[in-house]
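Severity: low
Component: inverse-folding endpoint
Summary: output formatting inconsistent between runs
Steps to reproduce: submit the following structure tokens with default settings.
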């Protein structure tokens, strides 16, 4: 169970960390120019907040379990990221864009939460 959780959570953490850092580092106009047209629906501050949530969620997927300090926080982080991705699905669906990627991330995040809850206590 540990290996399955760490493989899934590690992969998700890498994706969320990259996405979050991109949103934090690049200005809104650069994100739109790179093809992320949904940013037109949000202010720069909201985009930075979404990016910060993704970074914090990525850290929360891994560190509590690895350190053995409040490991219940890892499934909580996974649930929060799933909720964030459901918001992404709604945003893309409203704009009539493809929402497959955020939907897959939401499902995988929910799976990570379920796996995290089944981990034996350390």
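Observed output (run 2 of 3):
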């Amino acid at each position: 169970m540990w290996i399955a959780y760490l493989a899934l959570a590690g992969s998700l953490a890498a994706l969320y960390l990259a996405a979050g850092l991109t949103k934090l580092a690049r200005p809104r106009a650069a994100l739109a120019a790179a093809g992320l047209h949904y940013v037109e629906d949000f202010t720069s501050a909201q985009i930075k907040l979404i990016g910060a949530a993704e970074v914090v969620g990525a850290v929360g997927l891994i560190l509590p379990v690895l350190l053995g300090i409040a490991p219940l926080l890892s499934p909580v982080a996974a649930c929060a990221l799933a909720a964030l991705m459901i918001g992404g699905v709604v945003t893309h669906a409203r704009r009539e864009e493809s929402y497959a990627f955020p939907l897959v991330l939401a499902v995988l995040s929910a799976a990570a939460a379920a796996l995290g809850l089944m981990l034996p206590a350390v």
